[in-house]
Automatic annotation (TrEMBL):
Transmembrane segments: none annotated. This is RNA helicase. Residues 225-385 form the Helicase C-terminal domain. Residues 402-411 have a biased composition (Basic and acidic residues). It holds the Pfam family DEAD. It comes from Lotus japonicus (Lotus corniculatus var. japonicus). Its EC number is 3.6.4.13. Residues 402-460 are annotated as: Disordered. It catalyses: ATP + H2O = ADP + phosphate + H(+). A motif (Q motif) lies at residues 10-38. Residues 449-460 have a biased composition (Basic residues).
């Protein structure tokens, strides 16, 4: 009880946040700071480097955004902070939070991610925003190719979901970025991650000076208000059980995680054929389509999002009620991030993990990691099996639709190739003509030598 009273007594103002930002927090509905914010803000205001370990959905973005905005208010400067994230969707989400918190002070952000037009990004960078939020790969492209863009003046560096940045093989890009940035002695660095790995520890030694470690969660924790269950089923009946659960939970907001882009698309088409409002999200979609799909789900225009692990990190969609792991993740830590999409910011949520005869070892690893055995999700097998015929027919249609989509893509690729080849041939045809003119001019003919010789021969 005493702990609760002390927690309630802590406000953003008592942590040292200024009035303008306290008002912004109120507008966003942040009444009291979360655990990680209580720990991180006072240290950040002392301009110390921070390593923050906290479970997903614990308010990490606020923990680094608020100190940066407060420092920016004190010393206004362009290109003030750089935030690195592993995924494009997370970059857009962080940008939204910065702009919402800094709306009253006119903060300008630029999101620099792959899949979008380089030219418009170069223009955004030329306007010198206060905060740059980027994925490492595209940022390196701009540092190497965009004239006049430099990060020498950066005062703050944030690496969010640092373990995932390193897992996605961004190490080479990170090294390039760290070499270009001001030395760690003149900037503040925040490294946030849900899980601490050896790679993160190595990165900490390379880029932070005398950091303070804030650990709010257990080593690998899931939120208490999350009801986690598993369902042991034969692999050939996964689709039927999925449709049955979606039926039972109609009206709720659900994310279904699959392991591959193909499975994601197939499940989206299958469930659509059965009348569900479904939207897919995977890495093979263009960036605009990915953002469109996310916005439809966030705006509740679609109630089911079927996604690969692209959506497992950092995405903050408060209204998610249920997470279904259609395919069990290969890395146990990804399980924590997936189920962290629900039960966020104090809400409750459910997760159901499908375990087939091939997934037992992976499932046991997850139980070992989270340190508890999960209860089984209760279903009536007879009721589920009544759907089998309809689901099989919907699956057959979905596969036909996928074949059509693939054929369209192939046609489009071939047309593009032909067009490029024709353009290439035209260029090649034109070039020899130019050369011939030059040869003609440089030859004896050009100087009238041949004419002179012909005349000589005639006279003879």
């Amino acid at each position: 009880m005493e702990d609760n009273q002390t927690e309630q007594a802590v406000t953003f103002k008592s942590l040292g946040l200024n009035d303008a930002l306290c008002e912004a927090c109120e507008k966003l509905g942040w009444k009291n700071p979360s655990k990680i914010q209580c720990e991180a803000l006072p240290i950040a205001f002392q301009k110390r480097d921070i390593i923050g370990l906290a479970e997903t959905g614990s308010g990490k973005t606020g923990a680094f955004a608020l100190p940066i905005l407060q420092a920016l208010l004190a010393t206004p400067q362009r290109l003030f902070a750089l935030v690195l994230t592993p995924t494009r969707e997370l970059a857009y989400q962080i940008s939204e939070q910065f702009e919402a918190l800094g709306s009253s002070i006119g903060v300008k952000c630029a999101v620099i991610v792959g899949g979008m037009d380089m030219m418009s990004q170069s223009i955004a960078l030329a306007k010198k925003p206060h905060i740059v939020i980027a994925t490492p790969g595209r940022l390196v492209d701009h540092l190497e190719n965009t004239k006049g863009f430099s990060l020498r003046s950066i005062q703050y560096l944030v690496m969010d979901e640092a373990d995932r940045i390193l897992n996605m093989d961004f190490e080479v890009d990170l090294d390039k970025i760290l070499k270009i940035l001001p030395p760690s002695s003149t900037r503040s660095t925040y490294l946030y991650s849900a899980t601490m790995t050896k790679k993160v520890a190595k990165l900490q030694r390379a880029s932070l000076r005398d950091p303070i470690k804030i650990e709010v969660s257990d080593k690998y924790a899931t939120v208490d208000k999350l009801q986690q269950t598993y369902l042991f089923i034969p692999s050939k009946f996964k689709d039927v059980y999925l449709v049955s659960i979606l039926n039972d939970m109609s009206g709720k907001s659900i994310i279904v995680f699959a392991s591959t882009c193909t499975t994601t698309l197939r499940l989206a088409l299958l469930t659509r054929n059965l009348g569900f409002t479904t939207v897919p999200l995977h890495g093979q979609m263009s960036q605009t389509k990915r953002l469109g799909a996310l916005n439809k789900f966030k705006g509740k225009a679609r109630s089911i999002l079927i996604a690969t692990d692209v959506a497992s990190r950092g995405l903050d969609i408060p209204h998610v009620d249920v997470v279904i792991n259609y395919d069990i993740p290969n890395h146990s830590k990804d399980y924590i991030h997936r189920v962290g999409r629900t039960a966020r910011a104090g809400r409750s949520g459910k997760s159901i993990t499908f375990v087939t005869q091939y997934d037992i070892e992976l499932y046991q690893r997850i139980e070992f990691l989270i340190g508890k055995q999960l209860p089984q999700y209760v279903t009536q097998e007879d009721e589920v099996m009544t759907l089998l015929e309809r689901v099989n027919e919907a699956d057959r249609q979905a596969r036909i639709q996928m074949k059509e989509i693939e054929d369209e893509r192939k046609d489009h690729r071939q047309k593009r190739k032909k067009k490029e080849q024709n353009n290439h041939d035209d260029i090649q045809v034109e070039q020899p003509k130019k050369k011939r003119k030059k040869e003609f001019n440089d030859s004896e003919n050009g100087f009238g030598v041949k004419k002179h010789l012909k005349k000589k021969n005639k006279n003879k």
